[in-house]
Amino acid sequence: MTSPTYSLYPVLAQIQDCPSVMIPLNDDWSLPGTFTQQINRANCKLTFLVNPHAPSGKLFDTETLSTIASELNSVLLIDEAYVDFVDVNYDSIPLVCDNDNVIILRTLSKGYSLAGLRFGYGIGAEPLIKPMLDKTRDSYNLDLIGQQIAEAAISNRNYAMENCQKVANERNKLSESLLELGLASEASQTNFLLVTIPAEFVCTAKQLYEELKVRGILIRYFAEEKLANKVRISIGLPQQNKTLVDAVKSLQL
Length: 253
Prior knowledge:
The chain has helices spanning 8-15, 35-41, 62-71, 93-98, 126-136, 144-155, 157-180, 205-214, 238-252, and strands at residues 2-3, 23-24, 46-50, 75-79, 102-107, 120-124, 192-196, 220-221, 230-234. The chain is of the alpha/beta class. It has 2 domains: 2-155, Aspartate Aminotransferase, domain 2 (3-Layer(aba) Sandwich), CATH 3.40.640.10; 164-252, Aspartate Aminotransferase, domain 1.
């Protein structure tokens, strides 16, 4: 796994008593040139990549992913939870067609606004997927209603595209508003912004998190070194974003 990554993966690995290899990203959130060499040297069986990356929002290009897949001695799992928000020219499906060691995970929780359904799916070569299903599938599998809702959602791709465009527009507006307050954010292809809190700001990242929480506004603070001066802000409705910006302004008065 990269460091940082989606915070639940290290937790799940620990629950399963599975040793993890954490490889730090570069300062610009790109993958180090020795990424695959480090993975292979550690004899890892499964490699996780979140793309777009969380919590930075950076998108790794398919050429990079293709190179990694071809060089790895293990399975490459690409978590594309936020893929609905990326550039329309991004297409990772050929990675599955060209490599028998790639699995892509997607969800309806983000772009399709169905977080409460807890519905996700995987894409991969049948020889890779089928043994996993046979070993892990529960007798009480996904319920019929959930399947029907998911099918209806996927069949209405236009809704997801329109929804994601609205989110992208609000994301850009929020990024500009925060920049006017001295808070720069990483270029994001997700439904959130990773915002840097500079040393000269009126409070630290942790203090900002706490001040906004008191005001009923929840953002994400990460208590780890690479993210200590940053917060992650999910994109809300226009009025919610305005409330956030107004709250940050009030701290500067």
